[in-house]
Amino acid sequence: MNQSELLALAQQYMVDKALIVVVVLLVLGYFLKRTPHIPDWSIPWLLTLAGIFLACGILQACTIENIVQGILAAGVASLTHQLWKQTTEKSGSEQ
């Protein structure tokens, strides 16, 4: 999946205002990953909660649709991070 396919998929299911949440979650995830006292397993949960709160705030209502937008934003942010990580970092056997 390349970047244009990912963006098309995100735009198909997400409202335009919620796409900014993806960028914010990517930055937040970057800083959480480098925080020594936060375990890696908790980062997706924290990003999901942050995505819900940010989506409800940006879309100015806490409805089921906006909660789903926050969850989708967290999913797209995690997928984007994993795509980047898997394509740029090589394991020892691939070098």
Task: Summarize the structure in words.
With 95 residues, the protein is mainly alpha-helical. Helices cover 71% and strands 0% of the residues. It contains four helices and no strands. It has helices at 3-13, 19-33, 43-58, 64-88. The mean pLDDT is 87.
Average pLDDT confidence is: 87
Q: What structural category characterises the helix and strand content?
A: mainly alpha
Helix content: over 70%
H/I helix tally: 4
Reading the helices and strands in chain order gives HHHH
Sheet with the most strands, sense and barrel status: none
Short description, anyone?
The chain is mainly α and 95 residues long. It is 71% helix and 0% strand. The protein contains four helices and no strands.
Keywords:
single chain; 95 residues; mainly alpha
Write the SSE topology:
Layout: H1 3-13, H2 19-33, H3 43-58, H4 64-88
Helix pairs in contact: 2-3, 2-4, 3-4
